[in-house]
Amino acid sequence: MSNDWRTLMSDFKKGDTVRLKSGGPLMTVVNTGDYGPTGPEDGVACAWFDGKTPMEEVFVGAALETDDGGPSVSRVVRG
Question: What is the arithmetic mean of pLDDT over 19-30?
Answer without folding.
Answer: 94
